[in-house]
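Summary for the funding panel

The consortium committed to producing paired sequence-structure records for every protein in the target list. Below we show the first two records in order, beginning with the earlier of the two.
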Amino acid sequence: MMNYDVIIVGSGLAGTMTALELDKSLNILLITKKSLEDCNSYLAQGGICVLKNNEDRESFIEDTLRAGHYKNKKSSVEILVDESISGIDRLIYYGVNFSKTNNIYDYTKEGGHSTNRILHCNDETGKYIMLSLFEELKKRKNIKILEDTEVIDLIKKENRCFGVITKDNKYFASNTILATGGLGGIFKHTTNFSHIKGDGIAMAIRNNVKVKDISYIQIHPTTLYENSNNRRFLISESVRGEGAIILNHKNKRFTNELMPRDIVSRAIYDEMRKENVEYEYLSMREVGVEKIESRFPMIYENLINKGIDPKTENLKIVPSEHYTMGGIEVDEYSKTSLEGLFAVGEVSNTGVHGKNRLASNSLLESVVYGRKLANYINKNFERFNVDIDLKERFINLEKNTELIKEIIKEDERVKEYIN
């Protein structure tokens, strides 16, 4: 029997930040379905929001609430904003180098924001954040990393969680944290890794853990259209923040590119129906031909490798599933309705995002709430002697996907995108 103080399922920013902020005296197991890098946080391009100054506070809160159609939990939004600076400072402490111009942070802007308040690492923010954190993670002698391991269920006795079951083993813990990400893998058009398909949410539902607003799915307006079933290559919203425009097949603009994502996505989808086409266009030339390669080096290189030159031609784009706002219902410390079980990051529902996430708030939520969760456990940790006689039960993993699909199909906005 393998016992740990804390088990974390998921290697994205939420899970990794939580692991690093937990007390070094705790014995921690971090389990991930694939390799450490195979998380959606690693794919994040645009950036991470931060409160620029005290004068920006009310505007930042209002932008987040407005993007979320005021379905947000305001107290959660206030925590996100008020603790953003300390969260960014912590990332810098772990070695993250955000882009600067003339030694001053280069704040960018995305849809729904009333000002430039987004820090970035060129156009691969998630990659550079995660590489810095993974380097630190591997130094920690109290953290064991288990890759290529699929968790299939929780270990539950009465109303308490005592760990997880994988395909091959059982791992017991005093505290269990789900940081399994969203459910993009069940969609035909998605920016997510295909293996991230709502496992954490399905485990919660199966064990009667409260979930909330699962059908709140965000569709990203601008992903590269290709005639394949592969993960869609995302064209960062910061491209539009820097001036790129959306065009139809008549080369005409038909929407305000800097409205919140759900509005722009719907405008594109409606235009596709109107024109009876499978994609519309994005022109990056308005960013400035000389600036495209220097500001968006990763996007530029990927497009060139696909035979597309954004300096001279329009990009074919299609809206794709991008983010899950709903999830396992938690309080401000990421506690779920099941004692001993926590959820953090995209798998959770803190109430921050409401019905639609404001651009670049996802990485920030993972940092802020991951730190709050770790601090809560550090202050309240209690070790349990686990002695549970588990009855073997067959878990059909395909049922997880079907369970999630049935729930989100209730939302007419998203069901047309599902496989």
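The next record, for a separate protein in the list, is shown here:
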Amino acid sequence: MREDDGRSADRALLPAVPVGLRRVLDLVVAGEATNRAEIARRSGLARSTVGQQVDQLLGRDILQELESGESVRGRPPRLLTLSPRAGTIAVADVDNLETRIAIADLGGRILARDTVLVRIDAGPETVLELVCDRLFALLERSGCDPDRVRQVVMGLPAPVDPWRGSPLRPNGMPGWDGFPVAERLRTRFRAPAQVDNDANLMALGEAVHARAETPVLCLKIATGIGAGLATAEGRIYRGADGAAGDVGHIRSLGGGTALCTCGNVGCVRAIASHRAVLLNLGIPESTEEDPLHGVHELAERVANNDPPAVRALRQAATEIGELAAMLVYMFNPRTLVLGGPLSELRDDLLSGVRAVVYQRALPLATRKLTITTTQLGAASALHGAVALATGDVFSERGIARLLVD
């Protein structure tokens, strides 16, 4: 039997959520109703029932009711929205050289964000301590109560067991394998916590926040190469054990004897990742003066049409295109999104991937396919983390937590 982070016990201790209250809150959160009359009309609930449920949500500081500036028959309507006191969400997107963090309200609006310059190979204890400290500082700077954090979500550049909240045999991340990341986050914030793969969160961010047509398949091309899939229902596809999307270790026909961090040779990651391109060009990934030296140097060389850099980028695009074509066959996405540092070099990478995918994949799989770079840039995983968090906060279990807090 799979462990579920104590969620079964959580459900047993929490009260049942009245159907009417759930319906009222769903309509307000979705923006489908902004006052009591609209809620009654759309929900089919009696006005008295709506009034009771709204009053309970107001009393719990989950909703607030504001005077509208417009007058209707002499009486200004009162508008219902989520209350700022309802709480906040803390999210982090951990990458190999830096971590992006943000605080959002329960409506999904990011209130503040920051970047923590810490290498992932510093180990989980160091990374989590620094990230958590900066998140608390961001809460304070934003005027948010740290005791009203409703959910914490962290993305990691590795396969993740989402039920235990731990990385699974990650490459280049010493000390992270099996580390109880979610448990540490729950302890620090005294709030529910989730951990997921960063490419999964990128796909969810593009689907929910950027409104890309689903299913969305996201390829993150960074130190490694990972894939995330947001289904037509807006859910993350994780596979049986959380290992879905670890596509960088698929063998490439042109991989030759290139040694990968996994110990095998010829993996796509070893010849077409951002790190592989830098290694091929002799560009250091980072320096003491600039932790992101490789990103900046490669971008400058490509912008200046440096022949070796342009050739290396185009070769990587061809390899990634072959991988993408295979994934398009398997998952038939409506949108294929390229993310990560290489995706910021838009023209050469995008055109190269498109050419291979449209050449290799049959028309049935590509006739309605859009291939593009991320619309949210480096923030896509943060937005995905916020979407994942709000989905849990406004689930039946999450609403029950709000009512007893």
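Regarding this second record: The first strand starts at residue 63 and ends at 67. DSSP finds 15 helices and 13 strands in the chain.
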